Amino acid sequence: MADDAPHQAVATEPRPDLTPEELEAGRLLFAAECRFFHGAQKLDQLPPLAGVEIAFAGRSNVGKSSLLNALTGRRALARTSSEPGRTRQLNFFDLGGRLTLVDMPGYGYARASKEIKADWQGMMFDYLRGRPTLVRVMLLLDSRIELKQSDHEVMGLLDRAAVTYQVVLTKADGLKPAALARKQEEIQAVIRKHPAAFPELATTSAETGQGIPELRAVLAGLAG
Question: Residues near 8 by Cβ (< 8 Å), separated by ≥ 6?
Fold first, then answer.
């Protein structure tokens, strides 16, 4: 237990480089109305290019819907499916006319058909590679479980698409501080091996609100 104190500091301290003004800008942005405005299952169904887009990706059951709901302060902005891996379209949400949030289909669901799994090698890759308004992908990883092969494959796909992505650990409340710190160190080591990965790791809990204000501030900074 002697080494728990430094681990706890690493896991729970907010980012020191974020100013109160940046945190407030994030709060104000995500206090704005957020509404669904478009869904696309094919590339030719994508909405016209406009403003800044940030996409959210992750394995089925990673907590993506819960994180989007926590960020926007809505209970049902992004609805969870009763059958993981079922949602196959890109869902576009307008946030206060300043930012577009894109909810990408979950990947890695064991019972998903080969056709669904192929979406990430086909349409999703083409979207990532050819969308100039897409400034960053937030790649969600469950802090409680080991990285899966599908996570590694998607990180490689994002590298090939040459789109900047930032890893966001979810469900951080499910780990004790020392274990969470070890997970952060493990993921940081993985991030360093990927050329398109943003070097900064975000850690969140939709349940407790941990990391939500900081993530809002980061996204507000990308919105400009």
Answer: 177, 178, 181
pLDDT in tens, 29-54: 999 999 999 999 888 999 999 999 99
3-class secondary structure, 39: strand
CB 90 within 8 A of CB 105: yes
Strands (E) across the chain are located at 34-40, 53-58, 90-95, 99-103, 134-142, 165-170, 202-203
Cα–Cα nearest to 54, from 163, 162, 188: 163
Say if CB 164 and CB 133 are below 8 A apart: no
Cα separation, 23 vs 214, whole angstroms: 6
Mention every residue, 6+ apart, whose C-beta is less than 8 A from residue 186.
Answer: none
Residue range 97-154, pLDDT digits in tens: 999 999 998 887 655 556 656 767 788 889 999 899 999 999 999 999 999 988 998 9
Measured at the CA of 81, the angle between CA 94 and CA 101, to 5 degrees, comes to 15
Token duo for residue 218:
């980061």
pLDDT at 53: 97
Name the pTM for this structure.
0.87
What is the length of the chain?
Answer: 224
- Please, what is the end-to-end C-alpha distance for the chain in angstroms? 44
Q: What is the pLDDT of residue 15?
A: 60
